[in-house]
Write a structure and sequence with these properties.
89% of the residues lie in helices and 0% in strands. The chain has helices at 2-14, 16-39, 43-46, 49-77, 83-112, 117-149, 152-175. Helix 5 packs antiparallel against helix 6 (117-149) and helix 6 (117-149) packs antiparallel against helix 7.
Length: 177
């Protein structure tokens, strides 16, 4: 296990974008497995492996690069790690980034699931506000701690670990028909 941890650390140091994308993909997949097995209680025979792979692909291709890039931009816009800076970053993150990101995530998930443009728009209208309000119950305190205590290169990994529960919720919400 220690060798795996060191390998992850080396990858993060050499190729942070790749490491962040792989982490996001793996944890989005884990969230979907939890959603299917614990929330939806599908069992192993009822598990939709293709859905898990789609969520992993969304994590790898969208969540990891976008959120990782956002944290870099946020650190340039609001440099520092004081408590006031952490609160400012959280306000910008939750007031500006989260609403846009959530809408894009729902749209991408709908498209990957084969919804027509009209069906996708209807699903976004149905799910968006509930998902955003749930987001506001979970993420502000997590992000304040993340911006205050965690170095930039580890922020996405910390958020993705907390996000296993969030990813489970998003997977359930986005894939509920």
């Amino acid at each position: 296990m220690a060798a795996l941890w060191r390998g992850c650390g080396r990858l993060l140091a050499r190729r942070p974008g790749v490491a962040q994308a792989l982490t996001a993909g793996a944890l989005m997949g884990a969230g979907d497995v939890i959603a299917q097995q614990l929330v939806e209680q599908r069992g192993l025979h009822g598990h939709h492996g293709s859905r898990t792979l789609k969520m992993m692909a969304i994590g790898f291709c969208f969540v990891g690069p976008v959120v990782g890039g956002w944290y870099q931009i946020l650190d340039r816009l609001i440099p520092g790690t004081t408590k006031v800076v952490a609160v400012k970053k959280m306000v910008l993150d939750q007031g500006g980034f989260a609403p846009c990101f959530l809408g894009c995530f729902l749209a991408i998930t709908g498209a990957v699931n084969g919804l027509s443009a009209e069906e996708n728009w209807s699903k976004i209208q149905q799910d968006y506000m509930d998902a955003l309000l749930t987001n506001y119950c979970i993420w502000p305190p997590v992000q304040i701690a993340n911006f205050y205590f965690v170095p930039l290169k580890h922020r996405l990994a910390v958020v993705q670990c907390v996000a296993i529960v969030w990813n489970c919720y998003l997977s359930w919400k986005a894939n509920r028909m």
